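In response to the reviewer comment on reproducibility (Comment 2.3), we provide here a single inverse folding case reported in full, input and output, so that an independent group could reproduce the run without further information from us. The structure tokens appear first.
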């Protein structure tokens, strides 16, 4: 029988967080979505981990079914919601897997609250933008953020958004357009404001942050030909600065590695967060049989 998941709400100090959780089948792993997405971004992947792990997937503030916080969308402010969530809901040190914005959040928490994190995987995160201040926000990302903000602020219905997205990209699978439309309907348009204002949401120093990570950390890079958010030189710099940091390139992948290269993503995550079973535990032995 496949694992059963439940949907819940957690009252963080500033707002409420919606989250999905699986059965307690092992050490916890928390999946953190990217900017403009929802916890359902991970839904098809959670069963791949839920048989030997307890999985959690929260909606970040301003996203999905979580509460909104006007003007409260700096990257460290997102992390300030997840920290008490880890303490109160997860209840023990967890592996963190974050995509894009979620990868930055995972890194911030690993650096600031090492007691809460066993391993961290940052999936194509915009961690190093401040190392390249002259680059600014790449034009294509600014355009994407602005379009998303305008659509989220519009009075279009979900079906209207779906229809428009399908017409704009007729080769896109319908289920993808449907998910994007639902994301936009449930999104606070303000989440993009700081990103469009010169990247002011990036309220951290990457040099300081990487230097303070004390758990194993993996940076998963998308293919630069497809618009990776992480430059090879930055990934190498991070690994040289902190020996606990490693990095891999997923060749041919898009920024959404967990979708474009799903099987490879699942394999790499399993390998990195693997926990040696307790050989004295009959339950652990049963899992390995």
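Designed residues, in position order:
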């Amino acid at each position: 029988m496949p694992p059963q998941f439940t949907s819940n709400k957690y009252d963080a100090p500033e707002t409420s967080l919606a989250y999905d959780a699986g059965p307690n089948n092992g050490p916890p792993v928390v999946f953190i979505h990217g900017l403009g997405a929802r916890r359902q971004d991970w839904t098809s992947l959670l069963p791949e981990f839920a048989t030997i792990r307890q999985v959690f997937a929260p909606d970040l503030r301003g996203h999905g079914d979580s509460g909104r916080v006007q003007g409260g969308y700096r990257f460290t402010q997102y992390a300030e919601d997840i920290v008490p969530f880890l303490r109160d809901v997860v209840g023990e040190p967890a592996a963190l897997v974050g995509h894009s914005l979620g990868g930055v959040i995972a890194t911030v928490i690993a650096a600031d609250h090492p007691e809460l994190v066993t391993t961290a995987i940052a999936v194509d995160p915009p961690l190093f933008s401040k190392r390249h201040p002259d680059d600014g926000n790449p034009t294509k990302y600014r355009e994407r953020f602005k379009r998303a903000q305008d659509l989220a602020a519009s009075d279009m219905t979900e079906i209207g958004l779906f229809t428009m997205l399908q017409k704009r990209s007729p080769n896109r699978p319908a289920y993808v357009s449907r998910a994007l439309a639902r994301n936009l309907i449930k999104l606070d348009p303000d989440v993009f404001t700081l990103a469009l204002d010169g990247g002011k949401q990036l309220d951290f120093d990457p040099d300081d942050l990487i230097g303070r990570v004390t758990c194993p950390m993996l940076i998963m890079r998308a293919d630069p030909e497809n618009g990776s958010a992480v430059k090879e030189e930055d990934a190498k710099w991070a690994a040289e600065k902190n020996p606990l940091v490693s990095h891999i390139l997923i060749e041919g992948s898009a920024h959404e590695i967990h979708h474009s290269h799903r099987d490879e993503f699942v394999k790499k995550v399993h390998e990195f967060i693997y926990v040696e079973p307790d050989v004295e535990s009959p339950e652990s032995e049963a899992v390995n049989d």
